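hiii, so i know i said id send this last week but things got crazy w the move. better late than never?? heres the sequnce for the chain we talked about at the cafe, plus the structure i predicted for it. fair warning i was half asleep when i ran it
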Amino acid sequence: MRIRRRAMLTATLVAALLGVAACSGGSSDDKKTAAPDSKDNTACKAAPVSGGSLTYARSQETLTLNPIAIRSGNGDIFADGLIYEGLVRYDPKGTDKIVGGVSDTWKVSPDGKTYTFHLRKDVKFSNGDPVTAEDVKFSLDRFGNPDINQVLGNLAVGYDSSKILADDSVQISLTQTVPSFLDNIAVFPAFIVPKKLVEEQGDNFWKKPVGSGPYAVKNFAGGSRLELTRNEHYWEDGKPYIDDVTFNFATDSNSRLLALQSGDAQMADGIEPAQIDKVNKNPKLGLKGEPGPQWIALFLNEKKDEFADKKVRQAINAVLDRESINKQIFGGLATVPNSVFAKLRYDAPTSEVPAFTKDVAKAKKLMSESGFPDGFSTELAFPAGTEFFNQVSLAVQQQLAQIGIKVSLKKIDPATMVEDWRDEKYDVTFAFPGVSSDIAVPDEYAVFYGLPETNNAFHTSWKNADVAAKVKEFISTPDDAARAEQWPVIQKLFNDELPSINILNLPFFVAHDTTVCGTGVNALGVDQLQEAWLVSK
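okay and structure toks below
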């Protein structure tokens, strides 16, 4: 991820995870179903067992354990997800359903502006202290304070205040109806922390913090190693199953694969597509893939006259051979999208909104009808350090040449690429090593693109008054059924306008030793290691 401050940089859980999963390719899937493990381990069909230690080779370093001040994107966020919990969370089994976290029940007022949460009985932090309504109010007030929540302040839209009703209940008041509110507080900036300890210890608290998640911090050496141990006070009986989890950070994908092959690690992320065959051929290793909101986004700067031309954008989208890119670069493991974003809640199925398809004749016709019938020259920036971007960029260069667009390629370091995108100093860019949504509903990206005052339409300069009006209605409609009807209309408009171009949807995956069972991620691709267990070889 993610190098950003305040709302304008919050958009992308910009993940360097960027592998692909062992799941079916082809057109955009209409169901969010977890892919099977690539190895059929009979031992994993038995009931989970407790005990053992797990070493996880991670591609992104954990630099801070303060969930409201992340510095290393998923490197921080995936650690936070094991240490803390919010009032609610995404279903650990991978669906986009909101389920209880620190809270077990809640009620919403008819106008959608008041939420009342009841805390679980005997829910505790990892040091044994009870989680109280005072802790919840303190944490949510941090979440709602833009001076503190500078990373995902946009998710605190509408938050006004929290009121303690009793030791085990809190009432939250909103200034406006926010239909995505439960999704917004299910993620890391709204995680619950102990008020007393944070106030007493200040910055020192984050060196060895206390949370109510499935694991407690044993030792944290920022940027190199994070050691976790099971939270003996965790509210969910029997979980986590694994006693100790260690994150070893290795930014080089070859190092992570070698750690798996040697047995120095039992799990690894960030496996390059070219390495997947090695994993699958190793009888000791397996791949587990999950659909998730992650995609390869191509940004076009509409300050440039050529990209302000809608027909040019449509021509680029039509000439792209996504099936070929998927097959040749990703081994058919990605999916061809039917949206400018990854698959999110309320998306229409491909039977209603078809997936993007290659049509060179259509692309050439669109270019001939545009203001640039003879084509033009442009520059595509792509990130260093992720091998498949070299191949994707070459494919884009070759395919755009078919419609007279001469593309020069510029490989730059990811941090510089993000800054250039944010400063709008680019022609065409991937902007990030990867893009994913912070929440499982489309509200976040609908606002980023559809309401240009937010951040100049995600730094593309695109504007459309019709889309803006429909987005404003969508993000303020409390009725879920109505939202489900509204979004496909907006989805189609985005697909026609193409403020940016989605090349492929990429699943989340982990590579693991076959002694590791129950691996999986939630709807945002965050590992749910409380569900995993180890079997004997």
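btw DSSP finds 16 helices and 21 strands in the chain. thought thatd interest u
miss u guys!!
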